[in-house]
Amino acid sequence: MALPEQSSMGAFLAAHPHVDGVEAFVFDIAGAPKGKWLARDKALAIDAKGLPIPLSVFAQDAWGCDVADAGLAFGTGDPDGLGFPVAGRFALMPWLDGHRAQAFLALRDGTGAPAAADPRGALEAIVARYAARGLTPVVAVELEFYLYRLEDGVPVPPDGSRQASWLRNDTLSTSALAAYQGLIDAIMAAARDVGIPADGVISEAGPGQFELNLLHRADAVAMADDAMLMRRIVRGLAHKHGFGATFMAKPYGEASGSGMHIHASLNDGDGMNVLADPATGAPADMLFHAVAGLVAAMPETMLAFAPNANSFRRFRPDAHAPVSAGWGHDDRSAAIRVIDGSKAGGGAKATRIEHRISGADANAYLALGAMLGAMLQGITDGQMPPTPQDPLNPGAGEPLPVEWGAAIARFAGSGKAAEMFGQRLVDIVVACKRQDRAAFLSHIDRFEYDTYLPLL
What we know:
The chain is built from 16 helices and 17 strands. The protein is 34% helix and 21% strand.
């Protein structure tokens, strides 16, 4: 629950008289924060008046350039939306010197509705469809990232042991946590201050790789906010401590990729998990309907989980990043893992679905929206999923489009994605990613020259 001082920008500033400036921002399609720095007096006005921000901020490529084909910047007059502060998300910014705070905004269009180009608003609409059925998604996120240092512009493990690091697996190493105690403590403290229920951190397999566990919430939009704000906190504080931090899906070709696993269950009005049998806790038919929807939609919505060129480097056989749309009972090799609370010891509340496709680089609003949207489609259709995969022979489901261009094309033509997000947002996302991809295709790197100049 938000503290009284978190109820508004005015209340927060009254409780923090030393704050002399505020960073007010939204997250764009790529997940980058975009906004303005405001003087204290100017920030006091945004509770009532909002902050004008161009709607075209949601139609920029990975380098911050306008995407003409998205139809927001050119030929429209480039109109503003109004950003209003999200209560409970005011906090100091400990990674910056001086007395500066942050205000996270939700962007509304001229009618007061969520801007059509804003993925956060699309997730709000999906959650509202559940509410119309008397259901509330309960979601949690596991978010992985790497710490690094730069050598000649190239990332290397933060301890500098690049060559030996690929031979070492630091999964669940407490020594690796202790080595970065100051930074980890600062991250967890900053998370608490901005209302993120981060309840644990572990060392992961890669050198300098960690995973943050965000405790489940009966508010999917707030959980997506948590994931996006956590990325910002980690990057800011890592820099202050002398490191880089990245949520790239695959920063090193030789090491483990970084994912964003999403867990979801569904509560009814009495707080009971409708994905489980109330007596035994075992999966109910509604869970399997949801799984059927996830399996059916996954190939078409891959772009929501793997949005960037680098995203697709994660997807390799036997690499904990599934390459087919399959599911299984407590099977971590499957794209969809069904967790049975009656066997896990947690009862009905612990029965849930884990979605294991998304990379840490995904826009959390699109990733959660694609997951919850597909679950709802499956529940509406009432179909049962295909046979679960054999853990000894994974990959039996429909192959996923594990190439960027193919994923963009599937998303562009997807009726399922249009139903989830609205055709306008689908078109904007596709336009942005096509412009990104065109830029990558025009760039030739050193490895390509080294390979082909002497060969051809």
